[in-house]
Amino acid sequence: MSFPPSQPSWQPWQPGRGVPQPWQGQGSPSLLASHADRERAVDVLRAGFSEGRLDHGELDRRITRAYQARTVGELTLLVADLPQGPAPYPAAAPAVPATFLPRPVPPTNGKAVGSLVCGVLTLMTAGLTGLPAVVLGHVARSEIRRRGEGGDGLALAGLILGWLSVAGWALFLTLFIVTAVAAQV
Q1: Who contacts 70 (Cβ-Cβ below 8 Å, separation ≥6)?
Q2: Do residues 108 and 150 touch, judged by C-beta distance below 8 A?
Q3: How many Cα atoms within 13 Å fall on the side-chain side of residue 56?
Q4: What is the 3-state secondary structure (H, E, C) of the chain?
Q5: What span, in angstroms and rounded, lies between the C-alpha atoms of 71 and 25?
Q6: Closest residue by Cα to residue 47 from 36, 32, 33, 62
Q7: I need a labelling partner for 65 at 20 to 30 A (CA). Which of 58, 88, 126, 177 fits?
């Protein structure tokens, strides 16, 4: 049922009926409404409709009156019984339960990185960094097990390269000593 604009029946937004909520209109109620004021009021009305606070007929009537409004006071009355924005919703539950989220990546142990670097440098330093690679690798692996850090593979690679270097030096020194003893005999 549609009413002509000149003789509307009583509606909740009319003055003197109920307790209106303030609308964030600019200035005094007698101030002439701008296009932006009308669009803001229509946005509030549409939000009320989308939230189920107004039916379609009521929305159409109020929008018509909003575009015909001359003052901010008229617009205030049109939206007085609606919230001035989307209604707050309770906090939503997380989208994915924590059980199904990937585990956070643990930090990499710094000594494991040092062990690998020393192990790789054994090739360039003629095996001089082999012993530090072994020591750092063993310390890193024990810290990794105790603290739950990452980098076990790095420590293991440093250990292997370090032990190969130590074994190479041990073989070299053994051969050197054997040849020195054989030369004296």
Answers
A1: 32, 33
A2: yes
A3: 0
A4: CCCCCCCCCCCCCCCCCCCCCCCCCCCCCCCECCHHHHHHHHHHHHHHHHCCCCCHHHHHHHHHHHHHCCEHHHHHHHCCCCCCCCCCCCCCCCCCCHHHCCCCCCCECHHHHHHHHHHHHCCCCCCCCHHHHHHHHHHHHHHHHHHCCECHHHHHHHHHHHHHHHHHHHHHHHHHHHHHHHHHC
A5: 10
A6: 62
A7: 88
Triad 132, 175, 164: Cα angle to 5°: 30
Written as six digits, the tokens of 172 are 């070299």
Which residues are 108's β-sheet partners?
150
Nearest-5° Cα angle at 136, 132 to 139: 145
Determine the Cα–Cα distance for residues 157 and 105; give it in Å rounded to an integer: 20
Query: How far is C-alpha 164 from the geometric centre of its chain's CA atoms?
Result: 46
What does the pLDDT look like over 66-119, one tens digit per residue? Answer: 999 998 888 888 888 888 754 455 555 557 777 788 888 899 999 999 999 999
Amino acid at 174: T
- What pLDDT score does 107 carry? 94
pLDDT in tens, 123-140: 899 889 999 999 999 999
pTM here? 0.46
